[in-house]
Known about the structure:
This protein is an alpha+beta fold. It has helices spanning 2-6, 99-106, 127-133, 170-177; strands at 10-12, 15-16, 29-31, 34-35, 43-48, 80-81, 89-96, 114-120, 150-153, 158-163, 182-190, 193-194, 203-205. A hairpin with a 2-residue loop joins strand 1 and strand 2. It is elongated and about 70 Å long. The chain starts with a helix and ends in a 6-residue tail after the last strand.
Amino acid sequence: xxxxxxxxxxxxxxxxxxxxxxxxxxxxxxxxxxxxxxxxxxxxxxxxxxxxxxxxxxxxxxxxxxxxxxxxxxxxxxxxxxxxxxxxxxxxxxxxxxxxxxxxxxxxxxxxxxxxxxxxxxxxxxxxxxxxxxxxxxxxxxxxxxxxxxxxxxxxxxxxxxxxxxxxxxxxxxxxxxxxxxxxxxxxxxxxxxxxxxxxxxxxxxxxxxx
Length: 211
């Protein structure tokens, strides 16, 4: 930062700053004539396409970070997703550089509403509604049942599933435990945030909550 200030690239109300330790309000500062982007922390919503991974390396395919402004990777800390969606799942992802916000949403104690649109391999049965709501569904390799989940059957092979937790591949594993294979999976809501009409592969800035 000191080198940037010395180069005359940082200004306050149009006046070039001379000292890097000068105390100023971040939202009044410009860099190369442009306002600082989200100086108090960044939060954005991304409509993740199929085929993209949520890791920072591209060993398994293109990453979601290729869809974001390159300068976000240079933030300190750099941005990361709040939770993940697997390569074969599309939908809403929150992106932030605020560690406390990541913890708020991903802590094991956090009960964050997540709504998924699901397509399965064979006709759904009404009994599955009660099964998922029972709080007794066990996933292979785990020793505690899933929290009660709300299943709305929307077609012979389609449903909407609302979860209040986020285990590894939970939606796919819940259906598999009852004999169904998930063929398509899409998340349309995370917490209070809804995907709405945001186009696939696009992102939009959100107001940053207090953390």
